[in-house]
Amino acid sequence: MKLKTNKAISKRVKQSKKKKVMIRTGGQDHFNARETGKTRRNKRSDHQLSKANTKNIKRLLPYS
Predict the structure, then answer these.
(1) CA 11/CA 5 separation, integer angstroms
(2) Could you tell me the domains of the chain?
(3) What DSSP state is assigned to residue 49?
(4) Structure letter (DSSP) for residue 18
(5) What pTM was estimated for this model as a whole?
(6) How far are the Cα atoms of 2, 24, 34 from residue 40, in angstroms, in the given order?
(7) Using one digit for the tens of pLDDT, what is the confidence trace for 10-30?
(8) Dist CA 56 CA 42 (whole Å)
């Protein structure tokens, strides 16, 4: 029997070629004018998830 992929996670998480789990920074839609320039710059890039979270995420994405 096939395993089901968790669609909520698959839309939020991407896997790099070296199998790192990358996630986009939250809070980018609005209210960014009040942020410092450093914070706004850091929000533009993706970040690697911690190893503790990566194990759980990979369980929810069986065919990635």
Answers:
(1) 11
(2) 7-60 (4.10.410.60)
(3) P
(4) T
(5) 0.74
(6) 42, 13, 9
(7) 999 999 999 999 999 989 999
(8) 25
